[in-house]
Amino acid sequence: MPLPARNVAIDAQDLYYTLKTIRTALAYNPNITHCIISFxxxxxxxxxxxxxxxxxxxxxxxxxxxVFKDKHNFPGNPDDDTQIFLKSVTPLKKHLFSFxxxxxxxxxxxKKRFEDSHYFSYPRMDSEILKxxxxxxxxxxxxxxxxxxxxxxxASTVQENQKLxxxxxxxxxxxxxxxxxYVPPVTEYYRxxxxxxxxxxxxxxxEPLQEKYRFKxxxxxxxxxxxxxxxxxxxxxxxxxxxxxxxxxxQALSL
Length: 255
What we know:
By secondary structure, the protein is mainly alpha-helical. The chain has one domain (15-238). Helix content is 52%, strand content 6%. The chain is built from ten helices and three strands; from the N terminus they run H-E-H-H-H-H-H-H-E-H-H-E-H. The chain has a three-stranded parallel beta sheet with strand order 1-2-3, covered by helices on one side. The longest helix has 21 residues, at 155-175. The protein is globular. The mean pLDDT is 87. InterPro entries: SGNH_hydro_sf.
């Protein structure tokens, strides 16, 4: 990036926590002038806090809630997991194993370990697509796309996210922060499995915002610029693809 930049993306994030992360970064550094957001077609209907997946459940209880103290629409009590752990540490165990000292050491080591960590483990040069035959790739991509095709049926989430994003855009326009959205590139396998209604619904939500607020939208979904060996899986780039994507995004910056 031609400007000092920080990646504040978190795995399996949704729009609500994405915007919360950005606002937190701006509170920490009000001099931020540009913000780039990955905005997949299914994003409007995605609410991490209502997911039934154990992986995404842990994103609330182990990442977002501890950081923001905000459970959004999460129906349970995120503190429960922490309390279960703490109650399992008896006074005897604390005495024998110097629990507080070990806990503090663990936290400090974690801070150092993740001080400048990346979204994925690096280097990330492999490509799942190259490991399988055509039939297997189609089946796997179809399964992945099917997990995203369902999101627009959650009408209340779509409406909530539209309101959240409209408020965010108005705030960023008033602050003079340039917002760049991009629909990430995908493999042909994934692209062929996406429900066309997902795309039309995406733009039905986005176009009214484009008329009212200032932001850039770069749609790379149908791009043929990225090759199979530049994808880690069917809808995520590896390092090779990320370098190419970075160049596109730099060109979009108004500097």
